[in-house]
Amino acid sequence: MKTLYSIGATAKGGRNGQVSSDNGVLDLAVRMPKGLGGANDDYANPEMLFAAGYAACFDSALNLVIKQTKVAAGETSVTAQVGIGQIENGGFALTVALHANIPDVSLEVAQSLIEKAHAVCPYSNATRNNIDVKLTVSND
């Protein structure tokens, strides 16, 4: 693969610390969410950052597929819901539910587009056969 773009980020303090990008654009306090034993849900956490990145990347892939297939669709949106839980070996794993809203197309066309985007999206390709990813669509 020829790398087209690369960026780094540094974490200090793990889930109760700080994350920052190499270019300084991202500089956030992160805290353990309440569901994992933290005090509250008032801070960013790794699952939130993963959900945001996956949603943005998938929406971009979806719009690329729409452009390539020349489908006349309205403005799309993608929501990523990321879950974390303990697995049998004592480690932890993630789940992802991606919901795409693709206005002005039939549900059948929307389903086809989301499946094609799932084949193109770098996050989907990175997680394939490792994270359970559920795809749903609407066309409002």
Give a verbal description of the structure.
This protein is of the alpha+beta class and 140 residues long. The chain folds into 2 domains: 1-44, N-terminal domain of TfIIb (Single Sheet), CATH 2.20.25.10; 46-138, GMP Synthetase, Chain A, domain 3 (2-Layer Sandwich), CATH 3.30.300. It contains 3 helices and 6 strands; from the N terminus they run βββαββααβ. The strands form 2 sheets. A 3-stranded antiparallel β-sheet has the order 1-2-3, with no helix packed on it. Helix 1 (46-69) packs across helix 2 (107-120). The model has no long low-confidence stretch (mean pLDDT 97).
Name some characteristics of this structure:
6 strands; Organic hydroperoxide resistance protein; N-terminal domain of TfIIb; three-stranded mixed beta sheet; 140 residues; OHR; OsmC/Ohr_fam; globular; OsmC/Ohrsf; alpha+beta
Give a concise summary.
The chain has 140 residues and is α+β, with helices and mostly antiparallel strands. It is built from three helices and six strands.
CATH topology of the largest domain: GMP Synthetase, Chain A, domain 3
Question: Strand content of the residues, in percent?
Answer: 25-35%
CATH-level-2 architecture of the largest domain: 2-Layer Sandwich
Class of the largest domain in CATH?
Answer: Alpha Beta
Largest sheet: 3 strands, antiparallel
Protein name: Organic hydroperoxide resistance protein
Pfam families: OsmC
Family: Belongs to the OsmC/Ohr family.
InterPro entries: KH_dom-like_a/b, OHR, OsmC/Ohr_fam, OsmC/Ohrsf
